[in-house]
Design goal:
By secondary structure, the protein is α/β, with parallel strands linked by helices. It has 2 domains: 147 residues, 3-Layer(bba) Sandwich (Glucose Oxidase, domain 1); 225 residues, Rossmann fold (3-Layer(aba) Sandwich). Helices cover 23% and strands 31% of the residues. Helix 9 crosses helix 10. The chain is globular.
Length: 381
């Protein structure tokens, strides 16, 4: 069963791991890319509902991952495929989730669940294997007594523990020819790497696709823990710093905001998703929670400079609000569905950010030019 905090419930068939999981129930509108979604650290603490009715038909593989393992609390689908029909697959989706210890439910009315979230907002819930309708009241009470999503520090569990060097590895796969891997910084740079501009990634839950896109730009990429002080980052004399995506409420991340403020003006900054929200707070703005968030590969945004519309991949439940008093802070992108801020730019400080995901794993690649722009900025320093 999937039981929500308001007492409503859905019953279906269990797959994956036979255990309970509590989390914030959200929905994603992607038709494919479920493995990238499952392994995206930004989904820590969330029960993800896929709106596409058939999930799992192409199985899973060892390349299409965004982190070291499955990050979601649980998965909800209308119909799971227990067969895998793709030459790249190494396991079925149920096998994958079972091995990762993540529960899932299939056979429920995901359209009704999605409509409930759209109408009333995200809500905490629990996926409980072996439960019956008689357990609904008990489980709802359990969810109501659990810590709210906003109250938990998920970033600490996603971030690297020590500095890591990023290297590209050739895979021989047509669809994923290279992947990013990390090795301890103690291994040092190769002679070929040492001459490239150094970019430091502050890791709040970075996706592997972001690291791959940075390295593909010919940049030397160093990933540091989320709590690395600004002074320590600047001691490495980076040509630029990327503030990564990640889970949780940016409104409770005052230490990270202080780090960003210490970096502003000292080195070029590029923020993605949570990194964008932290930059917004560091610039004097505030963040607020969206009713049901933006999660999926079909979010239209408008480039304020060119008027060009880009279809983007997104995964966030919070957004940035500016008071308009700072005249040199430009809103570079806006969401065409609800008008929320999708990008910031402060040329004087060489800082810019996007709320959407230019690495698009999964999703369209309209916004991938952001990595080229960042490469141009760091090369000019």
């Amino acid at each position: 069963m999937l039981v929500l905090a308001d007492g409503s419930w859905f019953s279906g068939d269990a797959f994956g791991a036979a255990r309970e999981a509590v989390g914030e129930v959200v929905f994603n509108t992607s038709m494919s890319g479920y493995q990238e979604i499952l392994t995206d650290p930004s989904y820590r603490g969330q029960i993800v509902t896929m709106t596409s009715p058939h999930i799992g038909n192409y199985g899973v593989n060892e390349l299409d991952v965004e982190s070291d393992g499955v990050q979601v609390a649980a998965l909800v689908v209308r119909e799971v495929s227990r067969a895998r029909s793709n030459y790249r697959s190494t396991a079925t989706l149920p096998e994958y989730l079972a091995a990762a210890g993540v529960p899932a439910i299939t056979g429920i009315d995901t359209r009704a669940l999605t409509r409930r979230i759209r109408d009333e907002g995200t809500i905490m819930g629990v996926v409980a294997v072996g439960a019956t309708p008689a357990d609904a009241e008990r489980l709802a009470a359990q969810v109501r007594s659990a810590p709210a999503y906003e109250s938990y520090d998920y970033v600490a569990g996603c971030s690297v523990r020590a500095p890591m060097i990023v290297r590209l590895r050739e895979t021989g796969d047509v669809y994923c020819p290279t992947v990013a891997s990390m090795v301890p910084a103690s291994e040092g740079w190769t002679a070929a790497e040492a001459s490239a501009p150094l970019v430091v990634v502050v890791d709040f839950g970075v996706k592997r696709s972001i690291l791959r896109m940075l390295a593909a730009q010919g940049l030397r990429v160093l990933v540091v823990p989320h709590d690395t002080p600004a002074a320590e980052v600047l001691q490495r004399e980076p040509a630029g710093v990327l503030l990564s995506n990640g889970p949780g409420d940016p409104g409770r991340m005052d230490t990270a905001v202080a780090t960003v403020q210490g970096l502003l003006g000292a080195t070029p900054l590029f923020g993605i998703c949570l990194g964008h929200q932290l930059l917004g707070r560091a610039l004097g703005g505030e963040t607020f929670k969206l009713k049901f968030g933006h999660r999926g590969p079909n979010q239209p945004v408008k480039d304020a400079a060119t008027g060009r519309v880009e279809i983007t991949s997104q995964n966030h439940g919070f957004a940035v609000r500016l008071d308009g008093s700072a005249s040199d802070i430009q809103v570079s992108y806006s969401n065409l569905n609800d008008g929320t801020v999708e990008g910031l730019s402060v040329p004087r400080l060489r800082a810019f950010s996007v709320q959407h995901h230019p690495e698009a794993g999964p999703g369209p690649h309209d916004a991938s030019i952001m990595f080229e722009r960042f490469r141009a900025v760091v090369s000019a320093t």
